[in-house]
Design goal:
Layout lengths: L1 E10 L2 E8 H5 L3 E5 L6 H13 L25 E8 L2 E8 L2 E4 L6 E4 L2 E8 L3 E6 L2 H12 L3 H7 L1 E3 H9 L2 H12 L2 H39 L1 H5 L12 H66 L1 H17 L3 H25 L11 H16 L2 H39 L1 H79 L1 H7 L28 H40 L24 H22 L2 H54 L5 H46 L4 H7 L3 H25 L2 H7 L6 H64 L11 H24 L4 E6 L11 E6 L4 E4 L5 H22 L7 E5 L7 H13 L6 E5 L3 H6 L3 E5 L6 E6 L2 E3 L1
Parallel strand pairs: 3-15, 3-16, 10-14, 14-15
Antiparallel strand pairs: 1-2, 1-4, 4-5, 5-8, 6-7, 8-9, 11-12, 12-13, 16-17, 17-18
Helix pairs in contact: 5-25, 6-24, 7-9, 7-23, 9-21, 9-22, 9-23, 10-21, 11-19, 12-19, 13-18, 14-16, 14-17, 14-18, 24-25
Length: about 1000
């Protein structure tokens, strides 16, 4: 990688555009980058890093820090342009950070996003654009260089202070730096992966042991009292030997449980014998007591049976007479029914004769029937007269309906004539209403088009007046902020100039005897400077600078706020001053000769809006009646057609009604003649017919009741004869005796049940008195089952206890066998897991440096970094021997120091003494060239690690002031030898002697309005 040109614009301390020609500086091989403190030497290196990676070195990329120069004009954007050659390709990278810039249109500021551009030079085509994507450009450059930003800053921008600390650091600090440069994360990942595998396998082993212990706990619970004789092993999960101890303990528990099972079986057999004997004795006592009780109960039943024999005989006799009376019961029921029927018929005959005339009170059934036939014949002759009478009523109704229709049609004709008389005026009025609504709709559209702009102008005028006051306030705040910024700036610059005059005294306060000077590098300080009166320290200057920056920030914010308010005020003023056009092309601004530059007033625009609103509301209200007017016209036209048609229909119906009335009159006259003959003395034919029908009904009812009464009397006489004959045949003297002996069926069933129950009880008592075993038991002493029951209960309880104990012992043996098999299965299943854990644990301990096999206790990552450090020491020694005139050699040491782990030790061998000592014992100058040699060696190794990318441009930062003249010449010779590999080295230093020794120089000049660069060569100055 070779740098050609670098363009810096508004970056860091550089307020303008500065161009740096690295080709001219690199021609001599070594060039010097120098300038006063704070001028911007490091900013040049930051610009190179930003051009490549889009960010400055991490130590200077603090959050909230802006890369833009405070000295740059607001319209000059920050930009870095770097031209370089990588891998045989000549590229140009242009980057701009995110920054604010003035708006291209109007006032105010806008934020410009970060931008990047990548171009490649093609000999036949010139510069060709490759990409404008920040991500794509970053990935492309990182791939071409082969190093990350941190690696680049360590290898190309060699910070000597870091490598001096690297020489004196312990193994842990060296490991952190080497880890960033060589990216040994994959080896650390291997360590972590193996540790994670060990933890996972250990977790599995412990989980398996916990399962085995859980089974052992269940075995202890199942073993019961046997577990107390042999407690569980006290081994924890994960400890060796747990599985074998659990299996051995389970076998002991099973043996003890089997012994307890044999004892329980013997106890169970003895309890079963005692329970059998007690049960036989209890059964014999209960049987004897039952027989004795049965015999006593039979004797009591026999005594009760003899006491009820007389009642049994009476019930048998009464049931026998009741069954004889049952033979007369049908005749009795028939007599009673005939008597009831005769009484009903006699009452009905009396009621029907009460409605007949007096001359028919004693008439017979035949006479009444003959009179009925004559009345029916007379009633049949009135049918034709009834039909004529109904037709006459229909004619009256029809004539009434015709009169009603005539009145309705006359009213309809009068109403139609009245309405049609005003039809023309109504139609003309509706047409006029439609035309007026259409004109109002057109005017409402025109007014709406003028009303919205007028309202917007009124709102803009109100905003304009409000923003005018805000503009005045913002201008006052900006003026005050500018005055504060100017005052604080002058105060800061004055304090800075006073501090720079006495900067030597400030540096002298930091000197210590025997320590190198930060400026010249000498350990001797013969005449340190003294501070004068009114000396300003750095804290005072920093406080003044911070106050100035806050004032500048406040000024910038005030400018932005004023620009924003002015922009809104101008927009509101322009919007309020816009002229709205009326429908006829006339301007619609507020009346009067108002000043168009100032714009119309709010009051004028308010009057205009109110006027347009009233006119628009009135026109819109009128226009909304268009549809209603059209509907009214259509409805009126339909009504006109309907009324004219209805009038014609009414006239036709009147003519038809006249002819119909004439026909009805003729028909009514003919019907009146027929009805006069049929009515007789009655008021109507219907009344005369109803009277005849009533007489016929009376005659029919009287004849029927008379015949029914005669039939009921005959049936009553026949029933009496049958009852007397049935009572005589049943053995009763009179029918009344038979009726007094009759019993209901329920009563007879009750007597029969009582008789049957007495007879069944007598038979049962006889059978039980004949039992020989009960009679024999009655002759024995009374039985005592209550005395045998406690003996049996005790034997039964002992048997249950023995059976429960035996069952529990048998179940315990079965459960112990099952759990023992499960424990054996768990142990077999855990065997491969435990073997895998032991193998992984050995590997993890070896890579972590904790295993006994790792004698030096080196981690895998440390081992790899130790190999890299050995390469770096070998590459650095080649240059260190030249710088030290062959005296010093850097060697890598993997020896342990104290209790720390080995691997990253770094020692120096002194050829003058032949002894090896720590690098921390080197002097200031020796430490410098040793760290320089180490940095150059590290650059070579990292370059090879990055894929062999050639690094043709290097920068070395400070440290040369600690060297004497001879050592400085040797160091410069070593750096000059890099030209053999076509490399160029830029030295960043304050040492004045280097400006005499190195002709090619890049000077950074600090000025009030920003820093600038100047190229110095042997033939003059350019810049």
């Amino acid at each position: 990688m070779r740098l050609h040109r670098l363009g810096i614009t508004a970056f860091g301390p550089f307020g303008a555009t500065e161009e740096i020609d690295f080709d001219a500086l690199s021609a001599a091989g070594i060039f010097l980058l120098h300038g006063p403190t704070g001028a911007g030497k490091t900013s040049v290196l930051d610009a190179v890093c930003y051009g490549l990676y889009g960010a400055v070195p991490g130590a200077r990329q603090s959050p909230g820090t802006s890369l833009r120069s405070d000295h740059a004009p607001v319209d000059l954007l920050t930009e870095i342009r770097l031209e370089l050659t990588i891998g045989g390709r000549r590229l140009e990278i242009t980057r701009s950070p995110a920054q604010t810039r003035p708006k291209k249109k109007g006032d105010g500021y806008t934020t410009e996003k970060a931008q990047s551009r990548l171009r490649e030079y093609v000999p036949d085509e010139g510069w060709r654009a490759l990409s404008r994507s920040n991500q794509e450009i970053g990935e492309e450059i990182t791939q071409l260089i082969g190093m990350s930003r941190d690696q680049f800053c360590q290898v190309v921008l060699l910070p000597q202070g870091d490598f001096a600390r690297f020489l004196r650091a312990d193994a842990e600090a060296r490991g952190k730096l080497l880890g960033r440069l060589f990216d040994t994360r994959r080896f650390a990942a291997v360590e972590e992966h193996l540790a994670e595998l060990r933890r996972a396998a250990g977790t599995q082993v412990r989980a398996g042991d916990e399962r085995i212990l859980a089974v052992a706990q269940r075995i202890a619970q199942a073993a019961g009292p046997a577990a107390s004789e042999c407690p569980l092993p006290g081994i924890q999960p994960g400890e060796p030997g747990l599985a074998d101890a659990v299996l051995e303990w389970a076998a002991t528990a099973r043996s003890s449980a089997r012994e307890r099972l044999d004892i329980a079986a013997s106890v169970l057999r003895a309890a079963e014998g005692r329970q059998t004997a007690a049960r036989l004795a209890l059964d014999s006592a209960r049987e004897l007591a039952g027989l004795q009780q049965r015999y006593e109960e039979t004797r009591r039943r026999a005594t009760a049976l003899e006491a009820g024999r007389a009642e049994h005989d009476q019930a048998q006799e009464r049931l026998k007479r009741a069954r004889k009376a049952d033979l007369v019961a049908p005749a009795l029921e028939l007599r009673e029914e005939a008597g009831r029927a005769h009484r009903r018929a006699d009452a009905a005959r009396d009621r029907s004769r009460a409605g007949l005339p007096g001359d028919l009170a004693d008439a017979g059934a035949e006479q009444l029937t003959a009179l009925e036939r004559r009345l029916r014949e007379e009633l049949g002759g009135l049918d034709a007269a009834r039909r004529a009478e109904r037709r006459g009523a229909e004619i009256d109704s029809e004539r009434t309906a015709l009169e009603r229709q005539a009145r309705a049609d006359d009213e309809l004709i009068r109403d139609a004539d009245s309405w049609l008389a005003g039809w023309e005026s109504t139609r003309n009025g509706l047409h006029t209403r439609i035309e007026a609504a259409q004109e109002a709709a057109t005017r409402a559209e025109l007014l709406a088009g003028r009303l919205d702009p007028a309202r917007r102008r009124l709102d803009a005028a109100r905003r304009r007046d409000a923003l005018a006051a805000q503009v005045s306030d913002a201008e006052e705040r900006l003026g005050a902020a500018r005055e504060r910024a100017l005052a604080t700036g002058e105060a800061w610059l004055g304090l800075r100039e006073r501090r720079l005059r006495d900067i030597a005294a400030e540096l002298a306060r930091e000197l210590a005897d025997g320590e190198a000077c930060a400026v010249c590098g000498s350990p001797d300080h013969p005449r340190p400077a003294r501070a004068g009166d009114g000396h300003v320290d750095q804290a005072t200057e920093d406080a003044a600078e911070a106050a100035h920056r806050r004032a500048e920030q406040a000024r910038t914010e005030a400018e932005h706020a004023l620009a924003a308010v002015r922009e809104r005020h101008a927009a509101a003023r322009a919007e309020a001053a816009e002229a709205a056009e009326t429908g006829d092309g006339q301007a619609a601004d507020a009346p009067g000769d108002q000043d168009r530059a100032a714009g119309p007033t709010v009051a004028a625009l308010t009057d205009l809006v109110d006027t347009l609103t009233r006119e628009h509301t009135e026109a819109y209200r009128t226009a909304t009646g268009t549809h209603a007017a059209r509907e009214a016209l259509a409805a009126a036209e339909r009504e006109q057609e309907q009324r004219a048609g209805a009038r014609q229909q009414a006239e036709r119906r009147a003519a038809a009604r006249t002819s119909r009335r004439e026909g009805l009159d003729a028909e009514q006259a003919a019907l009146e003649e027929v009805l006069a003959q049929a009515r007789g003395a009655a008021g109507s034919v219907t009344e005369h017919a109803a009277l005849l029908q009533h007489r016929v009904a009376l005659l029919v009812e009287a004849a029927a009741t008379l015949r029914e009464e005669e039939s009921a009397a005959a049936r009553l006489k026949e029933a009496d004869d049958r009852l007397a004959d049935a009572a005589f045949r049943a053995g009763f003297d009179t029918p009344q005796d038979a009726a007094g002996t009759v019993l209901p069926d329920s009563r007879q069933r009750e007597l029969q049940h009582r008789i049957d129950a007495w007879q069944a009880e007598a038979a049962a008592v006889a059978d039980r008195l004949a039992e020989t075993d009960a009679r024999a038991a009655a002759g024995l002493p009374p039985a005592a089952p209550d005395a045998a029951q406690p003996v049996f209960d005790t034997a039964e309880r002992l048997l249950r206890d023995a059976a429960g104990t035996h069952a529990a012992a048998r179940e315990r043996c079965t459960e112990l066998g099952r759990l023992s098999r499960r424990a054996a299965d768990e142990v077999r299943g855990l065997g491969p897991v435990r073997e895998e854990y032991e193998r992984i644990a050995r590997l993890a301990g070896l890579t972590a440096g904790t295993s006994a096999d790792n004698e030096r206790k080196m981690r895998l990552e440390s081992y790899v970094l130790a190999a890299r450090l050995e390469q770096v020491a070998a590459a650095a020694t080649a240059r260190l021997r030249r710088m030290s005139s062959g005296r010093y050699t850097l060697v890598h040491s993997d020896a342990r120091t104290g209790g720390r782990r080995a691997g990253l030790g770094l020692h120096v061998i002194d050829a003058w003494t032949g002894r090896e000592r720590d690098t921390a014992t080197l002097s200031g100058g020796e430490t410098f060239f040793a760290s320089l040699a180490l940095a150059l060696g590290l650059a070579d190794v990292v370059t090879d690690e990055a894929g062999g990318v050639r690094l043709d441009t290097l920068f070395i930062d400070e440290g040369f002031g600690s060297l004497d003249d001879q050592t400085l010449d040797e160091v410069l010779d070593v750096l000059d030898s890099l030209r053999e590999r076509d490399r160029s080295v830029g030295i960043v230093s304050h040492v004045a002697d280097l400006r005499r020794r190195i002709p090619a120089q890049l000077e950074v000049v600090k000025e009030r309005h920003g820093s600038a660069v100047r190229h110095l060569a042997a033939d003059g100055v350019s810049g």
